[in-house]
Amino acid sequence: MKKLLLSATFLLAAAVSQAQDFQYKTPPKAIQDLLLAPPTPRLSLASDGQTMALLQVQDFPTVAELAQPELRLAGLRFNPRTNGPSRVSYAVGIKLKKLPNGAEVDVKGLPAQARISSPSWSPDNKSMAFALTTPGSGADGRVELWVLDVASATARRLLAQPLNDAFGNSFEWVSDSKTLLARTVPAGRGAAPSADTAPTGPAVQESGGGKKSGARTYQDLLKNPADERLFDYYATSQLVKVSLADGAAQALGQPGIIQTASASPSGQYVLVRTRHRPYSYLLPISSFPQRIDVLDLGSGAVVKTVADLPLADNVPTNFDAVATGPRGHSWRADVPATIAYAEAQDGGDPKVKADIRDKVYTLTAPFTGSAQELAALPMRFAGLTWGNDKLALADGYRWADRHQTTWQLNPSAPAGPLTVLFDGSSQDTYKNPGTPYEHRNAQGKYVLLTGGPSGQSIYLLGEGASPEGDRPFVDELDLTSKKTTRWWRSEAPVYEIPVAILDASGKKRTLLTRRESLTQNPNYYLRDATKKDKLTAVTKFPNPYAAFGGSFKKQVLHYKRADGVDLTADLYLPQNYKKTDGPLPTLMEAYPVEFKDKNNAGQVSGSPYTFTRLSWASPVYWVTQGYAVLANASIPIVGEGSKEPNDTYTEQLVSSAKAAIDEGARLGVVDPSKVGVMGHSYGAFMTANLLSHSNLFKAGIARSGAYNRTLTPFGFQGEERTFWQAPEVYNAMSPFNYADKIKTPILLIHGEADNNSGTFPIQSERYYAALKGQGATARYVVLPAEAHGYAARENLLHMLWEMNTWLDKYVKAPNPPQAN
To answer: Are 269 and 337 in contact (CB under 8 A)?
Structure first.
């Protein structure tokens, strides 16, 4: 008996050891140094183009910082200590610079270890407001409203009462540049509700009446009455107007769950969106009941309740389905006080036949009359861009065939005939005309920049996709003649994108651009678009990889899939690689994309001239370890006409991957017998499917993926059919169903606190259990406190160690261990 007990104890200890806590590891020094290379400052440009703020970026937070308290309620995540977002990439300092050649001036008055977010210029560009977070060690954390005086380069706290930043963007300038609106923690709020130790009853949900109310797979939802009380406590705010002069605050209206508050261009009214009960345990806050009110900015009194909408729990799951009733209320940006909104004419269901999908309405102060119809659209309304009394643009979209249209409207002649300005496939990037350029007007609102001799021109900024790669451009479009004049286009061997038009009226045509090349990291320039070589450097950010040779060897490969679809991939090789070195072990990375037209699927994206800046998720680190890397390998999944892309997902997936490997082998740089594959999110899903349905790879790395599509039954990624409409597709695309087929080693990595729709950690947990149960070679790593995108220094270094160890063991080794 004693011997039997000892044996049982030994077996239990062995079982526990397989799931014990694991100490953090670090990857090889070359990879570690690349990850920790200094970040480049962010740029925020004043609307007059005379001043820029350079925001020094926070380095990677520690896992201890990431693991601060976090509440996950109604689709939100926030820190209960600060009543602000729990995961923010902060700036830690600000420098001001006058354009073009002014000195960089450090802003004074900031506290040590500042955590800065949401910078916002005043309409007159004399001030910048921002949020400053003090984490605190308990209940003393807070998010504060600060303001920066540009002339003196001095910052100060403006408001004593802490912001309620649970929704983010908790403040906004009023057009007078002397006042701000802010959502604050209500005074005297008291202590937070305590968690119920003894529930008074079960949490109950009920449906009936035959009403269909499918919902996609969301995370962080309310679960019970205790969650509702916590949500009410932390989400409730008091709207105040704050004087820039002395920080004096006046309450406007009553406290509530105020999601947004925006002042009218005139500065006379405030448009307030408030969420209210009854809440849902199946849907996030974006579907909760909402009330749209107009308040008087002077008194805070309610002038008009524009809408009070119920819980949106019966919206079809189609991608361009919408809730019934008015939606998308916002201010018309070019007039003093007019509200615009849309309303579905098809019950919000794109499957319903209708000549008119949406109507757009306006309602003008003092809001006592009836709304006026502005436009009736044959497609789903996707947004308005305001210009002036005679010019506005309306966008429409249809998911089924990926079609989009932009119409030119005359606001002075509402409900008139629609004039098509642009029309075509959203996936036909070669024919994309560009995006109409907006600038901030005197009221601080964004409107179309117009110009030309008769004031009938607008300006288009585009990526300039072409068979040679992206070549960004600036065009002037005469709306009368419909003639387009090209101002400027990026030229090889650099990649340059327009950031802002600073002068469209003079002969100089001044642009602010960001310019880079294969060997030069991005910097900002002033460009005279009338003169090819007229450039003035604005920033001189140093090369973060100067210590590592300065840049990476990149080549864009062009090749075809077996069915004739054109494909591309970025090939990276080790710094000192020579063709005589022969083929290399290889790491391939990709992310599948659905298309409705194979010609669009074969279009080239990206540029061969961009500087490679490594994110934490990049595969390029492994060139330092002697690998060839095939990054951004295109994996188009095409379904033309009545066919859906995912009907032949696995066949197209495998064919695309094989084509990439074959092209690398043809060039003599890829050893096809030693290729690993990796992906994140939908790329992880891709990785698991490739290992399930091919023998192309020696190992796989899948980070934060979903592997069982029956757990996302109301659609996923680009698939809008439900499980019950296409069970064969869901089953065929679920690598969980093929766990018994995997003979290739697979490394699963997942963030413990994944917040992405559909990629619950349980996806990796159950997939690993299935693989283990079938005897597969698999390893499952859970990164503490990480969401869908990883952030903490220790976790990132350990992730890179895990990946490097896995690749070296199963791909790079002369005789990799055989999978079980």
So the answer is: yes
What digits encode the pLDDT tens for the residues 639-674? 999 999 999 999 999 999 999 999 999 999 999 999
pLDDT computed for residue 3 by the predictor: 40
Q: Which of 175, 754, 764, 808 is flagged as catalytic?
A: 754
First to last CA, the chain: 35
Counting Cα atoms < 13 Å in the Cβ hemisphere of 644 gives 14
pLDDT in tens, 270-329: 999 999 999 999 999 999 999 999 999 999 999 999 999 999 999 998 999 999 999 999
> Phi and psi at residue 709, in whole multiples of 5°?
-75, -15
309 neighbors 326 (Cβ within 8 angstroms): yes
Q: What is the pTM of this model?
A: 0.94
Measured between alpha carbons, how far is 386 from 368 in angstroms, rounded to an integer? Answer: 23
Reduced to 3 states (helix: H, G, I; strand: E, B; else coil), residue 767 is: helix
Is pLDDT above 50 for 82?
A: yes
402 and 596 in contact (C-beta within 8 Å)?
A: yes
Helices (H) and strands (E) in the chain, counts: 10, 47
- In the residue annotation, 423 being an active-site residue is answered as no
Read off the tokens for 254: 């009553």
- Strands of the sheet containing 746-751, edge to edge, are 553-560, 566-573, 628-633, 584-590, 670-680, 699-703, 746-751, 778-783
Q: Are strands 51-57 and 91-98 parallel, antiparallel or unpaired?
A: antiparallel
Phi, psi of 95 (to 5 degrees): -120, 145
693 counts as catalytic: no
Residue 87 in tokens: 């995961």
Virtual torsion, Cα 736, 786, 606, 589, nearest 10 deg: -40
Average pLDDT over residues 59-75: 94
Q: Calculate mean pLDDT across residues 730-750.
A: 98
Is 296 an active-site residue? no
Catalytic residue among 47, 118, 175, 681: 681
The whole-number pLDDT of residue 13 equals 37
User: Is the C-alpha dihedral spanning 538, 544, 546, 550 positive or negative?
Assistant: negative
CB atoms within 10 A of CB 3: 7
Output the pLDDT for position 14: 37
Paired tokens of 769: 């259990």
In 10 A of CB 14, how many CB atoms? 9
Q: Hey, how many other C-beta atoms are within 10 angstroms of the C-beta on 441?
A: 18
- CA gap 663, 555 in Å, rounded: 12
The strand pairing partners of 302, in sequence order, are 295
Give 452's pLDDT tier (boundaries 50, 70, 90): confident
Q: In sequence order, what DSSP letters do the residues of 598-659 get, joined into one string?
A: HHHHT---S-TT---PPPTT-SGGGGGGT-EEEEEE--EEE--TTS-GGGGHHHHHHHHHHH
Distance CA 382, CA 814 (A): 55
Distances (CA, A) of 656 to 116, 257, 650: 44, 48, 10
The larger pLDDT score, comparing residue 491 to residue 14, is at 491
Q: How far is CA 635 from the centre of its chain?
A: 21
User: What values do phi and psi take at 15, rounded to 5?
Assistant: -65, -45
